[in-house]
# Entry
Amino acid sequence: MDYDDIGEIIGYEGRQFITDGEGPVTKNDNAFEISCELIEDGDRLFSLVSKYDDVLADIIRKPRYKAGDTLRLILPFLKAYGATDRNMIEFSRKNILMVPGAEKTMRFVNELMPAFIVSTSYEHYVNAVCETIGFPFENAYCTTLRIDSARMSDWERDILRNYAREITRLPMIEIPDRAISLDDFDDKSRQTIERLDLLFWEEMTDLSTYQLILEVNPVGGDEKANSILEIQRSTGIGLESTMYLGDSITDVQALQLVRDGGGVAVSFNGNAYAVREAEICVISPNTVVTSVLAETFSTAGREGIMNLVENWEVEFLRRSGCVHDYLIKELERVFPDKLPTLERITFNNIDRLTRESSAFRKTVRGLEIGSLG
# Structure
């Protein structure tokens, strides 16, 4: 991944914290949940389109397509089933599920150093989350959407609802481990991919709501990495002084950027895509671990983080002097028997950590959401 202007950005002494929203901060997959709420068999439709998104972004690598573009592909269907900016805002406000400890963590980190959220989620949801936790929305980067701007006739609504029903009847796409081309897929998965190719890139293009697919630009993949560079320009803080938390395929390029720039790239309850690109793996039901990492990073930088990871125990935390006593007490309160997983990802442990993290995320976020890319 090349960013031509990265060398022009000169940082100053200081550190910053950047995190994905869904996963490290909240348990939601807001777009999935809105689809379930509004669309007939919306869980099935979203899950299948999400798998298709993984194939396009990670295996086919379709030009001008990126991880997270599921959020533009589903928009005509959301519109056809009655989505408006108002009901998306109202639904988001009523259905926020925080990862335990996240509200405290985000307020704490925001007092320690410049802190930002970079999320693929629609702005309706991210704004609602920021209101809930008292985090400045101006420090959040997310997907801009005005769904009310698209006009739809009754005829087009019927067409899209028929398409949606057809999609839900297609066989689910099964992505083989270590797949590198469509030749690695079974026949049913290939047939589903071929049908979706025809539907999204040919048959739907004359519909007026196709403007949503053309104009909405989800903040995933390269757009997350670009957001980090924009933050870097704004703060003057270099990548080597940046910590980034991600958990899914939409974080791949962001994790790569920070890792290769000498910063700290963390998978928080991540799936295989995130663990593959991160340097540190956190598997935890509570974000107090994030608070400990953030304060250690603020105090002692990357070196302090690596020392902590290699010596992950309460006594080391006390001796290090990098973390306040009250935070150590909170860690002990939340985890009285055993600390959660905090490990540096290596060739020798990546398969194990991938299995453990992928399994655990399903217990935290639910099987359906935890299984999404």
Summary: The first strand starts at residue 16 and ends at 19. Confidence is low (pLDDT under 50) at residues 1-12.
